[in-house]
Structure formats: structure tokens, C-alpha cells
Amino acid sequence: MRQAHNEALRQAWLDRITEDRLRELNQLSKQETERINRLRTEVDSPTEWAERAEQAARERLQPLLDSVQQVGEVQNKKSSSFKQQLLEQAADKSSVNADLLSEAILEDVLEGTAAAVWALERERGAEAQANRLLQEPTLESMLLRMEEMEKDQEEVRRRFAMISYSDPLLWERDTRTQRKSSSSRPASPQPIRLTKPAPRPSTTGDIVLQTPVETG
């Protein structure tokens, strides 16, 4: 920025010098015109007058023209150099800006990726913690489990008491049945009689087949 300001000041100085040289050139031109007019009145031959006027004009104007030409060349060189410097600075700034932009974009991408990974890890940690809390027994679930165990134990005690109370009655009833069966005497066995049916007479006659005898 400071270099550009200095270059602008140098350019303004060159422009002022050029304007001064042009002003001097115009003044010399006016003086030369007056001198030429004066020579016209003094010299009779037009050829001699033209040669003297041209020689005098060249002698007076040539240094000024050389100075103006040098100033113009310096100005052109400075201008082209200044333009080249501006272009180089713009290219450098563009390259730097592109690098900065790339770095900024890369930083944004890395920050976004890191934030996404951190959020994912945090979500996974919260989910794992929730699963552990669900799997771990809570006070309420432990109390409910203890109540269920107490109910089961009470049911077992009740069934055991029922079995204990019912067993003497069952034993007494079985004893009475055994006593009744032992007091009654068993009946004597009945004899087994084996009979054979008598043959029944046949009511049909016997038929005898014989050979026929011829008579006569």
C-alpha cells in the first residue's frame, strides 16, 4: 500500500515536470516565431532565411525536445514498471488470497469434521450409558424383585404347611382301612367241578348200501 502511494507521488512529479517542459517548449516556440519574423525582415534571400531559421530552431529546440523525450521514456518505463509491479502484486495477492482461502476452507472442513466426529462419539457415549443404565438393576426393580421373592417364599411355606397338615389325616385314614381289611376273615374257596356232557341217542336210521342181487 505504501509502495503504491509512493509510486503515485512519483507519477504526479513526472507529470508536473512534463507540463513544465511543455510550457517552456511553447514559450520557446513563441520566441522562435518572433525571431523568425524578425529574420524575415532582415534577410532578403528566402533560402538563406529558411536555413538560418531551421538551424536556430534546431539549436534552441533540440535540448528541450531531448529532455521531453527522456522524460517521456522515463515516464513510460516507470508506468510500465509500475503496471508490471501492480500486476505482480495483484498476482501475488491473488495467490496469497487463494492460499488463504484454501487454508480457510480446509480449516472449516477439518473443524466441521472434528465437530461431527465429536458429536457422533458423544451420541455413542450417551447411547452406551443409557444402555448400561437400562441393564443395571435400579432400586425400584430390586424392590420389585424382592417382593416377588417374598411372595414365592410365602407360597412355598403355605404349600408346605398344607402338605404337613394333610399328611396325618391321610395316614390315619390308611390305617383305618388296613385295620378293617385285617379284621374281616377271607371266605373259603369254592370247589371247582369238571363235567362232561352225556351222549344223546340219534333219532335217525342207519342207511346200508349193498350190491344188488339178480333174481330169477
Could you name the key traits of this structure?
single chain, 216 residues, elongated
Explain this structure to me?
One of its GO terms (cellular component) is centriolar satellite. Residues 171-216 are annotated as: Disordered. One of its GO terms (biological process) is centriole replication. Pfam families: MNR (PF15718). The chain is mainly alpha-helical. Among the domains are: 2-98; 140-178. Helix content is 81%, strand content 0%. The protein has helices spanning 2-42, 46-135, 139-183. Helix 1 packs antiparallel against helix 2 (46-135). The longest helix has 90 residues, at 46-135. It is elongated, with a radius of gyration of 74 Å. It starts with a helix and ends in a 33-residue tail after the last helix. The mean pLDDT is 67.
How would you concisely characterize the structure shown here?
This protein has 216 residues and is mainly α. It has helices at 2-42, 46-135, 139-183. Residues 171-216 are annotated as: Disordered.
Unreliable spans are: none
Counting copies of identical and different chains, the oligomeric state is: single chain
Number of strands: 0
Distance between the termini: 186 Å
Question: Nearest-angstrom radius of gyration?
Answer: 74 Å
User: Beta-sheet strand percentage?
Assistant: under 5%
- How many helices? The count is 3
Secondary-structure content class: mainly alpha
The largest sheet is: none
Q: What's the SSE pattern?
A: HHH
Q: Give the mean pLDDT.
A: 67
Write down the overall geometry: elongated
